[in-house]
Hints:
Number of strands: 0
Largest sheet: none
Helix content: over 70%
Shape: elongated
Strand content: under 5%
CATH class of the largest domain: Mainly Alpha
CATH topology of the largest domain: MetI-like fold
Number of helices: 9
Amino acid sequence: MSSxxxxxxxxxxxxxxxxxxxxxxxxxWLAVGRQSVFRRLTxxxxxxxxxxxxxxxxxxxLAAPLLAPHDPATQHPYERLASPNFTxxxxxxxxxxxxxxxxxxxxxxxxxSAGAASLLVLLIGVGVGAVAGYVGGWVDxxxxxxxxxxxxxxxxxxxxxxxxxxxxxxSSVLVGVVSVWWASYARIVRGLVLSLRERPFIEAAQAMxxxxxxxxxxxxxxxxMPPVIVLATLEMGSLILAxxxxxxxxxxxxxxxxxxx
Length: 261
């Protein structure tokens, strides 16, 4: 009995040592990955300039109460349509409101709404595309026909119709934009998943009895996210324009709330 107990303790100690070793290797890999990403970012001048611009815009939006020279809703009747000067660096609008103040305050709502819409579009598009590509069959056919139906119309026109049907408000604008913008993401993700589905590591996971949901979440989605994130960054400008356009038409935030639309 004592020898069996000693063997069990030795095996347990060896397993603990192996687990600790695997964790150390994984931690080193993650550290190296973070360092490589940072190194590539610092070497790529275009990416570095883009990151600086994004950080600058976010900083200006957050510091709007400190940087704005006037209240964005205050009207100056005797300064209507004024040209840029020391008091109003960007001039005033037809109601005498400071354009610089409205631009700074409006960036908070515009950037926040575009970021929220982009996140929702990513969640829906990646989820639908991953399910359609991995499951296949009638599920794939049904989901892709919905995608084809949405892409058959101009996205902004369809978003305008959905927003107008729901009602006036910023939440209605977000619902209208997200309802149509996810379709292109779903189609791209589906194509990526179809190519990944036949890879050896997916077949190995299936042979080991891993559930389809776990395969999609742990193996498929992480491998399709890099190109999808690139697409999301490229589409961010289109989302800002779409949301601003719907607000300009009076379907979103109402005056005198400052917004880029």
